[in-house]
Design a protein that fits this description.
This protein is α/β, with parallel strands linked by helices. It folds into three domains: 125 residues, no CATH class; 201 residues, Spore Coat Polysaccharide Biosynthesis Protein SpsA, Chain A (Alpha-Beta Complex); 85 residues, no CATH class. Helix content is 39%, strand content 12%. It is built from 15 helices and nine strands. Strands 1, 2, 3, 4, 5, 6, 7, 8 and 9 form a nine-stranded mixed beta sheet that branches. Helix 8 links the parallel strand 1 and strand 2. The two termini are 33 Å apart. The model has no long low-confidence stretch (mean pLDDT 93).
Length: 442
């Protein structure tokens, strides 16, 4: 990892792993263009110059640098004081205290830890994301890919959501880019064949009796005729330039994947860290355009995630590890309605860490299967420690900090129950690991 302390705070982050090429995603600052370096802030208060360089590499990626600079293949340990300084710059003070506590409880030398923490306790939180890397040529860029009009296959699995699917298809009718097909895998009960009659779209509908999201997407991928596959949800709304903005992004950055952003309320602002182009650290199959050859290289979606969570996250990590470029695209926005009926809700699994029953596994076993498979036991445990206490409160309080803190306190009170839930998830994820991935080739 770029800084060792990130293993406590971001233990299962894509960028923690070296890619197939043996390189990390972080650029070597000495190879960055001067136009990019001038947009970064060099911190001379680190003890070791390597920390200064790693800090610049962190800024470059998280501020949105996407380019051809050489990336780091070897990351060396830095002084303890620099570790505390780094997390103090980019994480809330509560998380700095959390790391200090874990270090002390892990039998690290408390005198050294407290001395290093004290030396960096006055560091100011960075506001670096307010000045992302700027791409002035984007607005005037004339995309040759758009001009060539490649066939796009829009893939929509649906389950008991005809009311919202109607609006989804009307939005597709209004697209200013016209060379696309719509592949729908309908799992609804009852299945309404007449629903699709009047849409002015090139639609292919396939009925699937089994209620299985990843089977539906895999089936549509194999059926698709397009060189670009655009994944969409059945409870979303998009603007007329949605497809065009995805294609333009692929062309502008010579990318393999364009990951659009999501908002959940009409008129809501895009979250700050998604308002600019950057190398994406996720893949959301409700709004992502993927070139077909990516699937030919990494395979289809892993059916170990069926009726559970994080199948798109796992696929996104395979994309990352295979050195493909996935760009977070703020211009390909969707309104995700998150309706309370149909889809994964009908399958009994919505949030990765929140359970619907007292004795259900926490988190959903597929989440731990993903963590353990790619990041190992130790980082998986750090991920549980980081996430489980704050998952006690219901989903509607997900962004309410006081309620999350209350959830962490409640977690202490019901600790034996939480331990049971986590152990159950660990056991079930172990069964998945023993079985192995269920990934078909294209």
């Amino acid at each position: 990892m770029l800084f060792e302390f990130l293993r406590y705070l971001q233990p299962t982050h894509y960028f923690a792993l070296q890619r197939q090429s043996s390189y990390f995603v972080y650029p070597d600052p000495s190879t960055l263009p001067e136009t990019v370096l001038s947009q970064l802030e060099s911190d001379s208060d680190f003890v070791d110059n390597r920390s200064t360089q790693y800090d610049l590499a962190w800024q470059a990626i998280h501020k949105g640098y996407i380019g051809g600079a050489k990336t780091l293949s070897n990351i060396e340990a830095v002084p303890l004081q620099d570790e505390y300084r780094f997390i103090g710059k980019y994480f809330n003070r509560v998380w700095v205290a959390y790391v200090l506590l874990i270090r002390i409880l892990s039998f690290k030398n408390p005198v050294r830890e407290l001395r290093a923490w004290r030396a960096s306790r006055h560091v100011k939180r960075s506001t670096y994301l307010k000045q992302p890397v700027h791409y002035p040529d984007w607005e005037t860029f004339e995309s040759k890919l758009l001009e060539s009009a490649p066939r796009v296959s829009v893939i929509i699995p649906t389950l008991n959501r005809y009311t919202w699917l109607k609006d989804v298809l009307h939005d597709l009718e209004q697209q200013d880019y016209k060379n696309f097909e719509v592949l729908i895998v309908d799992q609804s009960e009852p299945y309404d064949t007449s629903f699709y009659k009047d849409f002015k779209l090139n639609i292919a509908v396939r009925y699937q009796k089994e209620k299985a999201l990843w089977l539906a997407r895999n089936t549509a991928i194999k059926q698709a005729q397009g060189d670009c596959l655009l994944f969409f949800d059945d409870d979303s709304r998009v603007a007329p330039d949605w497809i065009a903005m995805h294609l333009k992004c692929l062309d502008f950055f010579k990318a393999d994947v364009s990951s659009g952003v999501s908002i959940s309320k009409v008129g809501a602002e895009v979250p700050a860290h998604y308002r600019f182009f950057k190398v994406s650290d996720q893949l959301d199959t409700g709004n992502a355009l993927v070139k077909r050859y990516v699937f030919e290289r990494v395979g289809l979606f892993d059916r170990q995630f069926e009726k559970q969570r994080m199948g798109d996250g796992e696929f996104g990590l395979r994309v990352y590890l295979n050195d493909f470029l996935n760009v977070s695209n703020p211009y390909a926005k969707r309104l995700h309605l998150k309706v309370d009926r149909g889809g994964l809700r009908d399958m009994g699994s919505w949030d990765a860490f929140r359970t619907k029953a007292w004795f259900a596994p926490r988190p959903i076993p597929s989440v731990l299967y993903f963590f353990r498979h790619y990041f190992g036991k130790k980082r998986s445990c750090y991920a549980l420690l980081r996430s489980v206490p704050f998952s006690i409160m219901p989903y509607r309080f997900k962004k309410n900090k006081p309620m999350l803190v209350l959830g962490a306190l409640v977690c202490i009170v019901i600790f034996p129950l939480v331990v049971f839930q986590v152990c159950k998830s660990w056991y079930l994820s172990g069964k998945k690991l023993k079985m192995g991935p269920l990934i078909e080739s294209l």
